[in-house]
Amino acid sequence: MSQAIPKVTCARMVAQVVQDMVLAKEIPLKRQRKMSSQTRLWNPFEKEEELKISIIEYIDRLGDYLHVSGSCFILALIYIDRITQKAQVRLSQLSIHRLFTTSILLAMKYHDDIKIEDPAYIATVVGIPQTELKILEVAFMSMINFELYVRPSKFRQYCEFLVLSQTPEMHWNEEKEFRIQMKKKMISMGLCSC
């Protein structure tokens, strides 16, 4: 699907967009911790403590150690967008690593048709126990109504958005203004409800 964009480039572009999505939607951690357990939505992907590795470094690591195509990184982004819309799963620094891990594994299995021969290796790479990975995959699939198919036109929209998000020729003076414009573009393309 994304043969024109190398895997490393796809991974880096997706990582930047995922980080921006988290920053745009995240409730500050201090406020999250003050919320009572009754007002916080249950999120099976959320951990108690923030990981020490940034989402960009984490996605780079997945690109380095998993045998996955560039298309899978884009599909993972689409799946994350789906779960935040369909199941209202909140993106945060506490959940994004596990959400991205689950979405990339599902993309590998569905799109690249990869049968994971060594689940222990995958668990080591992603830093999540095998049994927990299975639970997260089932929860994710259930929350998106088992809809892994992505129309080619939707896939192309995401590819175009990723390329646009990296285009320096837009000549914005401030990075903040550029990111605001990109979020507006993403919304207008129907890519997210950020």
From TrEMBL:
Keywords: Cyclin. It comes from the Eukaryota. InterPro entries: Cyclin-like_sf, Cyclin_P/U, Cyclin_PHO80-like. Coiled coil: none annotated. Pfam families: Cyclin. One of its GO terms (molecular function) is protein kinase binding. PANTHER family: PROTEIN CNPPD1 (PTHR15615:SF108), PTHR15615. This is Cyclin-like domain-containing protein.
